[in-house]
Amino acid sequence: MQGGPHPGQGPAGKWWDNPEMVKRLGITADQQKKMDDVFQQSRLKLIDLSATLEKEEVVMEGLLKGPQLDDAKILPAVDRIAQARAELEKANARLMLAIRHVMTPEQWEKLDAQQGARPRQGPGGPGMGRGNGPGPGRPPQEE
Fold this sequence. Notes:
The protein is 62% helix and 0% strand. The protein is mainly alpha-helical.
């Protein structure tokens, strides 16, 4: 997971705690609790996966700064970074899917329509990218 709170959203991007979003989408207190539970269950894994990716990127930086480039070390590092990114993307997708299961189809359509007016933030839309998007399970930032 990247970054901290975003404007108009709760701690760590918990948009379902934003009163305006709750009202706009018709999110119930029970749904908020379920989303909090899903988020908490995923949070530690996302932190670990993000840290793994960051560590692999730091290793790669070191390998690329040396006076001699060692392909035998660099290429496996590239593979480890790709694998770490894939694992993080899958965990983000699982979180978004779990949050979507808590929402009604009508709520999801409203959220999707709101997102459709803005550019998507990652390869799979909001919450699917690393670093540039709002983050896991999060809709776009409020304007």
